[in-house]
Write a structure and sequence with these properties.
By secondary structure, the chain is an alpha+beta fold. It is about 50% helix and about 10% strand. The longest helix has about 35 residues.
């Protein structure tokens, strides 16, 4: 162990070794306990690592060593065999210790599952098996709002991806990358998802992620330069007819990818907010002083009425948000359990599930930002020291909650409640 390595932190090799020797958990409860162990490790020096802003190589290795990257994998391929209701909780737990790493785990699990939703059964079996056997961590150059990744046919049974993506979460530290682009030369804008090895000349990272929050998520831009992919790896396309089996936004089951992703976001928002309250609690119970000029003065900050009331309010709101998030996670779980094999979900069922997810997005966005900002009111001026790092929770939430405007989720929910309209699938619904 290096003299600079702090025992028990993410850079301590013995931490990784212990997980590898223990093997994968075999029950939902054990998986969540494993996520908690990872979260505890990350929380030890999360503020320091956020301040340094280094590429999270060791952090991603921790996710791989712990087995969390395999959580959704089929058991027959030595995966964890868990469903999304457990995956969402695991994401939330990890984000509670470190928001950036919770986000990386969340995106990896989404990209791992994408082929299961939009690909063929053969593709799902083949690609998931390969990813699990190689213990790959997945990044993704997927940003439908930036439709600047073009796909053309080369005449030799291959597709060629070229273009630029402004955001590419986790790509720099990934083993493989999910690409998404628009096929050229057809009457409609047909999107194609695929998977490619990350380390190749045609994938060129800009290393320009310099935002105020999610500093370790490696979400910078990437240039894609003539990356070749066989037609057989175009998720959900018939390699013989070269036609989509199901256009993603027009088929209810394929479009269930979008609420699945949106609930991933809400769970790491919730984890970050819970982490903020954890850290604030540590500070208030050990550092914060009672205010001596308010009348009916208290000896300890923990006896102050307004501090107790504020913590009580935040605890209640986050507890309610967790219950809502768990209920929505069960809705996603049940949708895939009921319709994953036949892919026969109705537009109505898909839309109702999407509105459960939208409800969580609204609640976790507003509650998370309120908690991450409000903790300073109950910790005091000294907690704003940069070395304390309490601000990282608000910064993380503020950055990612701008992913897509929550006001549109509120409008969507209003139309659902007032007019009984389920939402039309979009790339953000």
């Amino acid at each position: 162990m290096s003299s600079a390595t702090v025992p028990g932190t993410v850079s301590d090799e013995s931490v990784h070794t212990k997980f590898q020797e223990a093997g994968l958990p075999n029950t939902p409860e054990a998986w969540l306990a494993r996520a908690q162990q990872v979260s505890d490790i990350l929380s030890l020096d999360a503020a320091k690592r956020d301040f340094e802003g280094k590429t999270p190589t060791a952090e991603v290795q921790l996710l791989k060593s712990s087995g969390l990257t395999k959580l959704l994998g089929p058991r027959e391929y030595r995966g964890g065999g868990q469903d999304w209701s457990i995956a969402y909780k695991a994401i939330r737990i990890v984000a509670r210790g470190d928001g950036s790493i919770g986000m990386l785990l969340a995106y990896h699990l989404v990209w791992f599952y994408t082929v299961k939703i939009v690909g063929t059964q053969e593709q799902a079996q083949r690609i998931q098996k390969h990813v699990l056997e190689k213990n790959w961590f997945l990044g993704g150059a997927v940003n439908p709002r930036s439709a600047d990744l073009k796909v053309v046919e080369d005449g030799h049974g291959n597709l060629v991806f070229s273009g630029f993506k402004f955001f590419n979460t986790g790509g720099v530290v990934s083993d493989a990358t999910i690409l998404e682009g628009v096929l050229q030369g057809r009457e409609t804008d047909n999107h194609i998802f695929t998977i490619v090895p990350t380390r190749q000349p045609g994938i060129q990272f800009s290393h320009d992620w310099d935002n105020i929050g999610m500093r370790l998520s490696e979400s910078g831009s990437v240039k894609i330069d003539k990356v070749q992919v066989p037609w057989t790896d175009a998720f959900g396309w018939d390699s013989q007819t070269k036609q989509p089996i199901a256009e993603i936004l027009k088929v209810p089951f394929a479009s269930s990818l979008l609420p699945t992703i949106q609930l991933v976001f809400s769970n790491f928002y919730l984890g970050i907010a819970l982490g903020a309250l954890d850290e604030a609690k540590k500070w208030t119970t050990t550092k914060t002083r009672a205010w001596p000029y308010g009348g009916e003065n208290k000896e300890k900050a923990t006896d102050e009425h307004y501090i107790l009331a504020k913590y009580g309010q935040f605890h209640a709101e986050l507890r309610a948000a967790e219950a809502l998030a768990d209920r929505a996670g069960e809705q996603i779980r049940d949708l895939f359990a009921d319709h994953g094999e036949k892919r026969d979900v109705s537009a109505r069922r898909r839309g109702e599930v999407a509105e459960w997810v939208a409800s969580v997005k609204v609640v976790t966005t507003h509650t998370g930002l309120r908690v991450a900002n409000g903790v300073f009111e109950v910790t005091g001026a000294s907690s704003t020291s940069r070395k304390v790092g309490l601000d990282r929770f608000w910064r993380d939430l503020r950055v990612h909650t701008l992913h897509d405007p929550v006001a549109y989720k509120e409008r969507e929910l209003g139309r659902f409640f007032l007019l009984d309209e389920v939402p039309e699938p979009t790339w953000y619904t």
